[in-house]
Amino acid sequence: VHQSKLDFFCKLGYGKQDICKVLENLGQEALEDDVLKELIRMGSKPQALESQAQPSPLKLVARGSCSTSPGSKWLGEDDSDSTNHLRPIVIDGSNVAMSHGNKEVFSCWGIQLAVDWFRERGHTYIKVFVPLWRKEPPRQDSPIADQHILEELEKQSILVYTPSRKVKGKRVVCYDDRYIVKVAYEKDGVIVSNDHYRDLQNENPEWKWFIEQRLLMYSFVSNRFMPPDDPLGRHGPTLNNFLSKKPVLPEPKWQPCPYGKKCTYGNKCKFYHPERPHQAQLSVADELRAKIKVPLSLGKEEEKRNRSP
To answer: Collapsing DSSP states into helix, strand and coil, what is residue 159?
Structure first.
């Protein structure tokens, strides 16, 4: 009885020493209400209330920076994503599965291949959206392969089922594409799909820009998930920069000058000259002028010294 009451009031946040003192005064058979009244009379407060009563120290935030409060974070998520330099990944499960199944079979193995590819890169936030009716047994008009993979991904908190139900024998399915775009937009992540979501682009102008800039297309080559190395085209960012929050700019690669030391372009030359890495690339005429000015200036200084008394 003593242990059960001790555990009960510890869960409420009271200290063990205060609880033991009250139980010694009132006895082990005291009612919980009486123990609670005595704790309040003693002035004991739960630890949660004490932490709230203490004012939190003010934090200086740089101008222009975005500071997120703890209340703005989603429930049930840790802070590992905030420290990770890789973007969150939101996968269109239906699109990936049908693409791997050659648009004939809903292949759950294709979803597993995509998830494993992002896991190997180090992504910690990966979500896959699939309609709830895919849990049902496969039928001839909608065959499903490797359906057990969906259960395994759901246990790992990776797969999320979008709601659906039956009304008078007809299936009512919620629009899973809206879930995918909304979550990816709020998490500032990347959408993995070959769908362009044109209807959602027309619905929200902010989503339009996000879909155009954060949509990662892919291909399956011999059961291998392969996104492109240039997701936004030849002149866009690389795949590594596209999937990271802090893109790394490539170092400029200078092409050596084909004329070498015989080059007469000087500072106008667009090529690299290894023979003068620490010198300003002056033209030949400027170099001659610089060589002539140095002895003339030295001679004028000597003349001034001789003339001075």
So the answer is: strand
Instruction: Give the distance, in angstroms, between the CA of residue 21 and the centroid of all CA atoms in the same chain.
Output: 50
State pTM to two decimals.
0.56
User: Distance between CA 85 and CA 41 in Å, rounded?
Assistant: 51
Non-local CB neighbours of 245 within 8 Å, separated by 6+ positions: 85, 86, 87, 188
Could you give the dihedral angle defined by the CA atoms of residues 241, 244, 249 and 251, in that order, rounded to the nearest 10 degrees? -80
Please list the pLDDT of the chain residue by residue as tens digits (309 residues): 667 777 777 766 777 778 788 877 877 777 777 777 777 777 665 554 445 445 545 555 444 444 444 334 444 444 444 447 899 999 999 999 999 998 899 999 999 999 999 999 999 999 999 998 888 888 888 889 888 999 999 999 999 998 888 787 777 778 888 999 999 999 999 999 999 999 888 888 888 999 999 999 999 998 899 999 998 888 888 899 999 988 666 555 667 888 888 888 777 787 777 776 555 545 566 666 766 765 555 555 555 555 655
Helices 16-26 and 32-42, axial angle in degrees (round to 10): 120
Q: Does domain 89-243 have CATH number 3.40.50.11980?
A: yes
- Domain locations in the chain as residue ranges: 1-42, 89-243, 251-283
